[in-house]
Fold each of these.
Amino acid sequence: MSATALVHRPGAFATAGVLRTVDHKDIGVLYVLLGIAFLAVGGLEALLLRIQLATPNERVLDPSTYDQLFTMHGLTMIFLVAIPILVGIANYVVPLQIGARDVAFPRLNALSFWLTAFGGVLLYVSFVAGGAPDAGWFAYAPLTEPSHAVGGGMDWYVFGLAVNGAGTIIGAINLIVTILLLRCPGMVMGRAPMFTWMVLITSVLIIAAYPVLTSALVMLLVDRQLGGRFFDPAGGGNATLWQHLFWSFGHPEVYIVILPAFGMISEIVPVFSGKPLFGYRFVAGSGIAIGFLSFGVWAHHMFAVGLGDAENAFFSATSMLIAVPTGVKIFNWLATMWRGRIRLELPMVFALGFIATFVIGGLTGVSLAVVPIDLYTTDSYYVVGHLHYVLFGGTFMAVFAGLYYWFPKVTGRLLGRRLGLAHFWLTMVGLTAAFLPMHWLGIQGMPRRVWTYPEGLGWDWSNLVSTIGAFVIAAGALALAANVWRSLRSGEPAGDDPWDAYTLEWSTLSPPPAHNFESIPSVRGKRPLWDRKHPDRMDES
Amino acid sequence: MTSSLEPIVFLSLVVGGIAAVILGGVLVALVVFTLRYRDARRVVPQIHGHRTLEIVWTAVPLALLVVVFVLSLVTLGQIGRGATFGSLEPPVRIAVTGHQWWFEFRYANGAVTANELHIPAGIPVELALESTDVIHDLWVPELGAKSDVIPGQRNVMRLFTARPGTFAGTCAEFCGLEHAWMRIVVVAEPRADFDRWVAAQAAPASASGRGLDVFRSAVCSSCHTVRGQVSVSGPSIGPDLTHVGSRRTLAGGVLANTPDALRAWVADPQRYKPGALMPRVPLSDADLDAVVAYLEALK
């Protein structure tokens, strides 16, 4: 039992206590609120980009502003939205799911949140300190070297990501220790909820991948401020070294933001199908396989760099291989639904949307692992379409599903169905309109990261549709905001277990008390609440 | 083979076909299961898994991917470094240099051009690509693959088209402010036409007049070479203009190469390509007319 339960006062979140809270639930909520605040910012940046690209030869933005906005949009959505929201949900849910009173190191937990937030502030200070980073979120050298990036934007990039990453690394260590050591009696790893499993794997990926980024950032800082030449070919350095370092962080990062999404879907689909997760061991095992393989696929971002045929073939093979454990999960979710009793509550609706969109992103991902196809599509809008299907259609749809699923636990109130369905359909239609045409634009030859484009190339309509889609997504986000607002004021009380769910967080109050459980539970299977409700049909342990 | 794009299209259709079947299967299962089992009123069987099924849906995608992988190696052989595209002729070699924000093309006979790549139809073309500043990437979608253009590294890429034609090309790697306007025109023409063109482009400039004097005395000559008349010391900063009058576009595709457009461009480059390295040069109207007349005469 941690010390925080003793110092935490009920209602502290609403008062100044928010600044010094070390309760995992408060910190989880803070993380999610941080992510939502930056989601609004990153979303507005995306709308500006789409306005500029709506028609050919548009002049709403100048190229300098456009470059800063697309760079900050990517950095924001990955480092300041996806990671904080996923870490926040993990922070809130994992200790409850494993029957613990808090995370292992509550004070470190607060530190990691504030570092993550402060890193975001540093990134955004750049706008008023001479210009934001403008070389894309993966910031290829030598465009970032002092000879080409004369402003301070890249320095803010280094400081912002390093500080933000330190917070994420510390948070991951905390979650690993929590999951390994604080599980309640009876919960061997083979009975841990799948979300907890995926958070564990993601956290291991974070502590393996983020330090590579930090190292690369320090090398870039040496180049920029101390006259180093790591990435400057003119001074004996190597321009592609940055790419190797960045992507050996960057590709695991893709799985860092998708594995917790897999975990949430693996909680929600079984509950709303009235069945256990089909193939628990295969789903957990495929997550581990994805974790390992994710460190051997980075150069599929670099097929056009000219590494050589043997190198390209190797990374092509590993990248195709990683599709197999990913496909396994999709088949397992479908098999979980098979012969179940499917309840189309809002979390399940979003989970179904996730499966439909993620499978598209996954399949286009396989096409990018095929070297000759990649040599055509890489650096084109096809890749932009693919990554948004994976990150928005994948991670964000799962986050929405998780939000509708756990919001009643956090607040004690249900979110409204009508606004929830409006949010769902606006998001599905919007993301299809925004991101599907991008694939076609890439096939037609439109390169990514162009601030404008000429007319007469057949790109006009697809771009206009994409821009309209972005605004439809934004309308969906407003429906979600209205839903949250209404629910907090006058939402239907949720009760402790509104979904007839399986895992321990639903056995305590909504919202949970400071100490989570009256007494530490003990379990004898994967679905402790199912066992409690169905003593005649308990899972075999 | 009709072009270096053809093998990629074939492979894409195979992969796309497999993907479409998988996507269709998943979506159908999703919809059917949702409709069929929605709010089912019966005791739901608590099925925890099925080992054989798991092995099947691990092994079948794996087998499909092995097939795709082997096909991709075959395709790579058809478009890679040693590709002949079914032609018996040795490849025509052209050196490509990426600059912020334009491409330079140098031919074996000394011809130099910018943002306009002429290639012979029916003969493989081997591009040797290097960059003077940051990483660029040369992509002509209708000819298939792309290659990064990297400082300190020499990449080689082979392209081919059997049919003459004009194709749009572009820089595909983000390279700074005017990445968008680093576009090229590729002109594929019959061998005889190509040979005539490349011989003409290798010849020194023939125009003259007051515009040349203005060009020499204004800052133009500190960046732009006009072979036989103006030479820049050191590496080229701006495009070689020896035969600029013969080119189809200006400034990486921002403008069509007409006298009016050229005049507007020289008068205020930043208006059309904000961020371009060419400064606005204060010239009187008379000097501007003279320079434009001179440049347009550089056929």
Amino acid sequence: MQITSPAFKQNSRAALADTQLQRALGNVRAGFIDKRRKAIDALPEFDALRDSARAIKNHVLENLDLYLETYERKVIETGGTVHWAETAEDARRIALEICRAAGARTVTKGKSMITEEIGLNDFLEAEGIRPVETDLGEYIIQLRGEHPSHIIAPAVHLNRDQIEADFRRVHDHLPVARDLTEPETLLAEARKVLRKEYFAADVGITGANFLVAETGSSIIVTNEGNGDLTQTLPKVHVVMASIEKIVPTLEDAAQIIRVLARSATGQDMSVYTTVSTGPRRPGDPDGPEEYHVILLDNGRSSMLGTKFQDMLRCIRCGACMNHCPVYHAVGGHAYGWVYPGPMGAVLTPSLIGVDKGGHLPNASTFCGRCESVCPMKIPLPKMMRHWREREFERGLNPATSRYGLKFWAFFARRPKLYRFAASLGIPFLSLFAGNRGRFRHLPLAGGWTKWRDMPAPESRTFMQQWQQKEALKQEARP
Amino acid sequence: MLNPEQEKPRVGLFVTCLVDLFRPNVGFASVKLLEDAGCVVDVPAAQTCCGQPAYNSGDRADTRAIAENTIRAFEPFDYVVAPSGSCAGMLIKHYPALFAGDPKWEERAKAFSAKVHELVSFLVDVLGVSAVEASVNGSVTYHDSCSGLRELGIRQQPRALLSTVKGLQLREMADADVCCGFGGTFCVKYSDISNKIVSQKTERIREAGAGTLLAGDLGCLMNMAGKLKREGSAVEVRHVAEVLAGMADTPPIGGKG
């Protein structure tokens, strides 16, 4: 997909002016936060589970090569095939080869951020293969030619009435007079339309929440059951997953699942947790004839051993964006690529380069709410700061802020000079404000005064007053 | 309370740059609260800023230079106290990270950080202050500034002391723990987004229906005061220390009216 992250400021201005989007974003603030809170309050050991989940992933990341090889061996033993894809291009090519070999014309897809990351849909379409998204949110945005604005709720930027209009536009074979006023009626209609697609599909592509080294299984967690139909009905099931999805055992996956849904939607568990191990075995009532796993790196292995390794613990629950004031203000599309919110602010520069994704780690107040809710305890603000450091080292940040900072730091490093400058500047500024106590406009502070008044300094600096008082005390002593 | 037999603790006040420049009353209120609680307070002249503007802009070299000055200036004190969760968080959590692996400075930075506290939590948690001598006629609402809340766990302490201020009625706002959109340089670099966030905050403040907004961080307070003034709100904005010290008789942040 096209990267618009460098235009984050323009994107966010457009998002702030978009009244439909602002209405929809109200649901993020209202919906996710309270549900997560309730689920976590009901589980006193939640924090201990977070620590255990973090430890599992840390262990995997320290031994990733070992677990990936074990996993591959197990997949092969169970009759599946593993394909290693170093780049997005490799992954697309491999997926196409599998589809071609199966003679596929239609491909159903379960929800997968990885296929968004590699731009699989556009690629398959250009090759004459029709991808059909089967997750309701993904289906809706596919109808609109959009990309997900949230990693677990791809259509969260839309309101019900917008979706109704899309369904009426696209499902024009259905009676015009039908009732689509309730979310349930929209869901029922999508199910009906999609039902045919499951049977028409030659290949089903899903992502994976976990790849289990012990058994060679892939696990997906879903709420709609679409993932099961996507992976069991077609002849060929393709799992597309990035390398850090590995966990050692089923037990480990179960541990992490306990924090995943609670953090994401406030559910104890997602409605479906589906474990797939290899293709259909003799005697199995159903299942695909072929089972392929495409293991994508796409820059992740270069994060290992760096300050950004912790980011690879991410389990894509979305809690960070659900609690992010910046995400609440502008929504996911403003971030300009696949991954929005705080996790995107760290991951995007890793995957597309800080020269393109540099705005994202800067567009944070460092309020720390993301880290406080992250089930994997990823230090997101700290890693955003690391990106700012890389930018600063490479001179990528804008010249105005760079020189402004250097000018300020010149004084802040020299207490005596700083004090002298402040003792001149502050009384002047105070005098300039008069007795109003604030400025409506102030030279060089347009970013502030465009939206709010600038409180004026009281009179003289604290230090001026303090030193004067101390001097008087000294004099008063006998 | 500290044993009166013991020598009085020597506290170095880290004024914070914003209090020094914009709101000296908060500094004097801090001194009063500390002295009332039995401390000997001094304010070393060699301090400027905690270094966050540089640190959060990725400029580690300048941050380190500023941090070294700060550590040196406060080494003679038993405690270092700042009327800001954000600056205290920088001194406590980030200075050790800044010097990690540096043979000359790491231990020095750790020893320094171990004696730094945010003002209100220092009064309550370290000095055992459970009540203040102050009175206010009216209702207040309290905003939990992010760094104080999430880096230092400051939430109950200011509320506990406010509950002992005579005549004060606390009216909690919804989402008191949600960021006000200040974020240091964020508020000017991404001013449109910051404006959206602070607009939501002022809406919550108005809904609370209190006459005064309090918080423990001047950056957040100036942001919220500036927005409330621009919106024509009559809500007065003050630092919590001013109320706790009984020094809320000066014009509020951003002026009267």
